[in-house]
Design a protein that fits this description.
about 100 residues; 6 helices; 2 strands; alpha+beta
Length: about 100
């Protein structure tokens, strides 16, 4: 179950170009920290909010907490690339952005 929303930035874009072995960089927390930097963290108030966010994602919607976090930290003016592991969620974010 979700316990928070997190936004991270890529520190070394060259590592992302070699996608065949990218998984190796994430075998340890130290390796992941060399590539990603956490810039925002939003803990849910309670389990009810976490459950609502989970249900929203399952229904193909963006929950309020995630939407606020994305609006605050991933600004359209900045022209950042947002990597999302879940293709369904990525499509929803792309449509709403």
């Amino acid at each position: 179950m979700l316990s928070n929303c997190v936004v991270r930035y890529v520190l070394n874009e060259n590592k992302l170009k070699e996608t065949d072995n990218l998984w190796k960089e994430f075998q340890s927390p130290e390796g992941a920290n060399e590539i990603l930097k956490e810039v925002a963290f939003k803990k849910f108030k309670d389990t009810t909010e976490a459950l609502q966010a989970t249900c929203s994602l399952a229904d193909g919607k963006i929950g309020k907490a995630l939407r606020k976090l994305l609006k605050k930290w991933v600004l359209p003016e900045v022209q950042e690339t947002l990597a999302v592991a879940d293709t369904k969620l990525a499509a929803i974010i792309k449509v709403r952005a």
